[in-house]
Specification:
The chain has about 300 residues and is of the alpha+beta class. The protein folds into two domains: about 160 residues, Adenine-n6-DNA-methyltransferase TaqI, Chain A, domain 2 (Alpha-Beta Complex); about 55 residues, Adenine-n6-DNA-methyltransferase TaqI, Chain A, domain 2. The protein contains seven helices and 16 strands. Strands 4-11-8-9 form a four-stranded antiparallel beta sheet, covered by helices on one side. Strand 1 and strand 2 form a beta hairpin.
Length: about 300
């Protein structure tokens, strides 16, 4: 099966793609174009999309209603336009989004640091995911010009970006599958966030009020159950620090004692670590002796 699939592919400037796909420039006539900016004068209030309302993980932008007089410099866009961030670090962070269809009056003003892309002969969601793909986003990143910290992607780089172009029905099917996955991920993320909020609430309740207490007292750390005491951390725990020298291979090579790095402290239980130190590393240094070998036997 793999060989059959390979036989049906062809080599292109962007790599192997199916035989019935084409390679086009994003800005080719009939594919997509960057909308020209224009002024808005016939409304008092306008939907405005600042950079913080352009998502880095979801599909659609948000907007806020502002008085037109409050919006000084901006980029004109319409419902359905794909807004692509053009400035560092927003581009590298994956900021892009589609202007929602419920945008008042069907148009909006956005930050000047985006390109509003009008999709003509390409499925909007398919192009959205193409521009999310690291391969194509890297091409845009490499094209950035300007001073350090304020680099921007040139308009021509977006227009000349080579992208795959499947038949439209396949574009829509690909976009449908990817958006379904995104929706599933969003639901999981929302469930995790809800659980995290529940956990924080429980921690606040249990760690300050305990279970079943009816009498409380005021202390320097707040209100706590009457029968609870207050101690200094150093009175009930031993604090140590120290790191085996990385200049001595005998402290690290073939080590069996887990060594916890700060990046591995994630509010959970540590079952294993990326690095290990040796018995000699533990014996000859001031390394905290929390991970004695016998505790892991």
């Amino acid at each position: 099966m793999r060989n059959m699939m390979q036989d049906r592919c062809k080599e292109t400037p962007i790599g192997k793609i199916p035989e019935d796909w084409d390679v086009v420039k994003l800005g080719d006539k009939g594919i997509a174009k960057i909308r020209k900016n224009k002024s808005v004068n016939n409304v008092e209030k306008i939907a405005f999309i600042p950079m913080e309302f352009i998502p880095d993980s979801s599909i659609y932008t948000k907007y806020e209603i502002r008085n037109l007089s409050e919006v000084k410099s901006s980029t004109y866009c319409e419902a359905g336009d794909l807004l692509l961030a053009k400035i560092t670090p927003s581009l590298e962070n994956g900021k892009q989004g589609i202007v929602p269809e419920d945008t008042p009056n069907g148009f909006a003003l956005a930050t000047t640091e985006v390109f509003p892309i009008v999709c003509k002969g390409i499925d909007r969601l398919f192009l959205f995911y193409i521009l999310k793909h690291p391969r194509f986003r890297k091409v845009l990143e490499y094209s950035m010009r300007g001073t350090t910290g304020r680099q921007r992607v040139p308009k021509e780089a977006v227009e000349n970006l080579l992208i795959p172009y499947p038949p439209l029905p396949e574009q829509r099917k690909i976009a449908e599958i990817l958006s379904a996955v995104d929706n599933a991920i969003q639901k999981v993320d929302e469930a995790i966030a809800k659980t995290e909020r529940l956990k924080k609430g429980l921690m606040q309740e249990l760690l300050t009020k305990g279970i079943g207490h009816t009498e409380f007292k005021d202390t320097e750390i707040g209100r706590i159950p009457k029968e609870w005491g207050i101690v200094r951390l150093g009175d009930v725990a031993e604090l140590k620090s120290g790191t085996p020298s990385r200049q001595k291979p005998e402290y690290w090579e073939n080590g069996t004692i887990p060594w916890v790095k700060s990046g591995e402290l994630n509010d959970g239980i540590i079952y294993d670590t990326e690095e290990k130190i040796t018995e000699l590393g533990l014996k000859k240094t001031q390394a905290p002796r929390y991970f004695r070998k016998e505790r892991y036997s």
